[in-house]
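Protocol step 4 of 6: structure prediction from sequence.
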Amino acid sequence: MPDERREEIDTAALKRSLDALAIYSQHVALHKRGAEFVARCLWHAPDNNPSLTFYEHDGEWRYRCVACPAAGNVIAFVQAVLGCDQAAAGVGPRQMHP
């Protein structure tokens, strides 16, 4: 019987290797606001004023919406946008941004 265990994903290494802002900007129009970026949230409507904030924390770009529970890192963002699990999201960013 073949070994069907999934290979563990080194999420820290994956996040370091990605250009998170480039991935985010493929799905939302980012606007610089100080040291952060803002955009209209994908997960609630209408979002007439940008409520989705992209910010750097401990060397990692994260996102948070002030109007809904959307929040996380670039992998969580890809998971939410593509509707996939963490393993698929680990592949997704490379496909979206070679």
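Step 5 (inspection) to follow. The two ends are 35 Å apart (CA to CA).
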